[in-house]
TrEMBL record:
SMART domains: AAA (SM00382)
Name of this protein: Peptide/nickel transport system ATP-binding protein
Keyword Nucleus: no
GO process terms (BP): peptide transport; transmembrane transport
Record-stated family: Belongs to the ABC transporter superfamily.
Pfam families: ABC_tran, oligo_HPY
Higher taxonomy: Bacteria, Bacillati, Bacillota, Clostridia, Peptostreptococcales
Molecular function per GO: ATP binding; ATP hydrolysis activity
PROSITE patterns assigned to the protein according to its UniProt record, in alphabetical order: ABC_TRANSPORTER_2
ABC transporter domain location: 5-249
ATP-binding keyword on record: yes
InterPro entries attached to this UniProt entry: AAA+_ATPase, ABC_transp_ATP-bind, ABC_transporter-like_ATP-bd, Oligopep_ABC_C, P-loop_NTPase
Domain of life: Bacteria
Organism of provenance: Maledivibacter halophilus
The entry's keywords: ATP-binding, Nucleotide-binding, Transport
Length: 322
């Protein structure tokens, strides 16, 4: 197993009038080369911030990021430009991330121009057509503007642009959330085909566990800036151990009508990420919270091979599955 990207104790705090907002608060994770790490959690849990930190679109407050074993936490502009070739992003809302005044081909050619990737204009245009073909955009759309196309095609432009410099690693931030369900499957299949063909590594961010399940090899579950559980995708669905993961899983609809599933409804207020209280962030909503949970923050611990959980009361809550 070769690790392409690793983050250690990564933090991002934002100053707000009410105090320090702990958006990402001590995250540790690894992404295997050629695999997909799903990052799942409710909106506002810090997953997009985490994706941006990894790509240096935001500066971290503390912690480290390693790419191919090299510490890339503090890089200068020139080094960052070099890194960006290998690390790209696909955004949630293709509409707002595409320049409305540019045509499809002008959008896709942009990274090639910035990086002077081709000496001749002819080669550059050839590459644009190649990229359009790769993502399933007909050549006749080259002079179209984003607003003339549907959401699926717009996301295909975003993917083509992300692929232009042949990256190894792509952060996909809710890439299908803005799309109709029927289009979602097409885009997810395209992304999976591209991953195989180009040996891409994905960090796939989503609030939707059923989407993450479909694409991920490993999954991290985030809650209010912290990781609460992380393991192989299959294992997470078979043997979830953290109370929050269990609640998330119970909310996924089951396709077979004769299977009954008890939904765990989360009550209680989500705690504030501003000046967070000591203890487990999930405590106000946790059915199993004990005294210690409000006093000490649980550490992410490996409870079985490659299965990490942050919970003080793991054994009591999972007698049958541990
Ligand atoms: Fe619940 Fe306590 Fe575990 Fe947090 S540490 S998830 S509050 S049991
Ligand atoms: Mg987000």
């Amino acid at each position: 197993m070769s690790i392409l990207l690793e983050v250690k104790n990564l933090r991002k705090y934002f100053k707000t009038p009410k105090g320090m907002l702990h958006a990402v608060d001590g995250v540790n994770m690894q992404i295997e080369s050629g695999k997909t790490l799903g990052v799942v959690g409710e909106s506002g849990c810090g997953k997009s911030t985490l994706g941006r930190l990894v790509l240096h679109l935001l500066d971290s407050s503390d912690g480290e990021v390693y790419y191919q074993g090299n510490n890339i936490t503090h890089v200068n502009k020139k080094e960052l430009k070099e890194l960006r070739k290998n690390m790209q992003m696909i955004f949630q809302d293709p509409f707002s991330s595409l320049n409305p005044r540019k045509t499809v081909s002008q959008i896709i050619v942009e990274p090639l121009q910035i990086y002077k990737a081709y000496p001749s204009k002819k080669d550059m245009i050839k590459k644009v057509y190649e990229l359009m073909d790769t993502v399933g955009l007909a050549k006749r759309l080259e002079y179209s503007y984003p607003h003339e196309l549907d959401g699926g095609r717009r996301q295909r432009i975003g993917i083509a642009r992300a692929l232009a410099l042949n990256p190894e690693f792509i952060v996909c931030d809710e890439p299908v959330s803005a799309l109709d369900v029927s289009i979602q499957a097409q885009i997810l299949n395209l992304m999976q085909d591209l991953q195989l063909e180009r040996k891409l590594t994905y960090m796939f961010i989503s609030h939707d566990l059923s989407v993450v399940k479909h694409v991920s090899d490993n999954i991290c579950v985030m809650y209010l800036g912290t990781l609460v559980e992380s393991c192989a995708s299959k294992n997470l669905f078979k043997n979830p151990l953290h109370p929050y993961t269990k609640a998330l899983l119970s909310a996924i609809p089951v396709p077979k009508i004769n299977i009954e599933k008890k939904r765990i409804l989360l009550k209680g207020e989500i705690s504030s990420p501003i000046n967070p209280k000591p203890g487990c962030r999930f405590a106000p909503r946790c059915l199993y919270a004990k005294d210690i949970c409000t006093k000490k923050q649980p550490k992410l611990i490996e409870v079985e091979e490659n299965h990490f959980v942050a919970c003080h009361c793991l054994k009591e809550n999972n007698k049958e599955s541990m």
